[in-house]
Amino acid sequence: MKREFAVIGLGRFGGSICRELSEEGMEVLAIDLEEDKVNEFKNIASHAVIADATDEKVLKELGVRNIDHVIVAIGDNIQASILTTLMLTELGVQKITVKAQNDYHEKILNKIGADQVVHPERDMGKRIAHSIISNNILDHLELSDDHSIVEVKAGKKMSGKTLVDLDIRAHFGCNVVAIKQENNKEINVSPMATEMINLGDILIVIGADKDISRFEKQLV
Ligand code: ATP
Ligand code: ATP
Ligand code: CA
After folding, report:
1. Whose CA is nearest to atom 4 of ligand 2?
2. Taking CA atoms, which of 64, 80, 100, 145 is between 20 and 30 Å from 168?
3. Does residue 196 share a domain with residue 139?
4. What is the band of 133 on the pLDDT scale with cuts at 50, 70, 90?
5. Is 98 in contact with 118 (CB distance < 8 Å)?
6. Do both 112 and 141 map to the same domain?
């Protein structure tokens, strides 16, 4: 069965989610207060309607309770975002993802029952900051407040050495969970301690942020 989504708020973030879901062939109901925004998505989403999502009656009429996953992408109006989220939880929507504007907003959203709170500006900022530290830090994924996974490209400091030579776990407290070889599409998801690292190989490293930070400074 095809999954159904609703995107509330068609700014840059919500609009981008709506576009991508539609391109992937998903059934999407697009909702915004503004006629212009809704018109922009008339030919993209399955349905696009002008509506105020803070109005409970409207949400009921739109049948939002039967939608599998609702994404609340109301930007600056934190009050509207909170109210909408609260009503969606009360309607019993199965999965609710909400974009948070700041840390307090995020806290409230978690308290009132949002299943997933995203903070795209903050998270993207973090990822870009890591790639700015070194051209060899390809990506950064936050696992919790103080643990992450990073994707790094082996430079001269790592090239020609094994995991034992570099002593990464003992020295930095981080684990190399996978190695992608540059000239090989294969990914080795349980590298042996004796695995040789070559220039350009991509290492997936997991650990505490402070440990990853030391690892990045010394070896990447
Ligand atoms: P982004 O940062 O993703 O570009 P934005 O800064 O444009 O978003 P806003 O303009 O504050 O964020 O909000 C996103 C959209 O949410 C807007 O198009 C706005 O019309 C819509 N919106 C705001 N309040 C409501 C509401 N109560 N019901 C439906 N849509 C709403
Ligand atoms: P340990 O108790 O740390 O696993 P060990 O001698 O049993 O020590 P080996 O598998 O022989 O472990 O690896 C020796 C050292 O090589 C480890 O202490 C670690 O520093 C490094 N090492 C091996 N595999 C990895 C890995 N996947 N990620 C990071 N470092 C590794
Ligand atoms: Ca914005």
Report:
1. 169
2. 145
3. yes
4. confident
5. yes
6. no
Tell me how far apart the alpha carbons of residues 201 and 179 are, in angstroms, rounded to a whole number.
7
Ligand nearest to C-alpha 56:
1
Residues, Cβ < 5 Å to ion ligand 3: 75
Same domain, 10 and 107: yes
Residue ranges making up the domain that contains 79 = 4-118
Q: Which ligand has the shortest distance to the CA of 191? A: 2
Ligand 2 atom 7 nearest Cα: 193
Q: Kindly compute the dihedral angle of the four CA atoms of residues 186, 190, 195, 196, in this order, to the nearest 10 degrees.
A: 40
Q: In which residue are the tokens 């042996």 written?
A: 192
One-letter identity of residue 203: L
For residue 176 the two structure tokens come to 């190399």
How many domains does the structure of the chain reveal? 2
Write the residue with the smallest CA distance to atom 5 of ligand 2. Answer: 193
Q: What is the CATH number of the domain that holds 53?
A: 3.40.50.720
pLDDT at 169 exceeding the cut of 70: yes
Q: 3-state class of 47 per DSSP?
A: strand
For residue range 20-63, list pLDDT tens digits in order: 999 999 999 999 999 999 999 999 999 999 999 999 999 999 99
Distance 177 CA to ligand 2 centre (A): 11
> Ligand 2: which of 162, 163, 215, 220 to mutate, most ligand atoms within 8 Å of CB?
163
> Distance, CA 85 to ligand 1 centroid (Å)?
14
Beta carbon of 191 within 6 Å of any ligand 2 atom: yes
- Domain end point (choices 79, 100, 118): 118
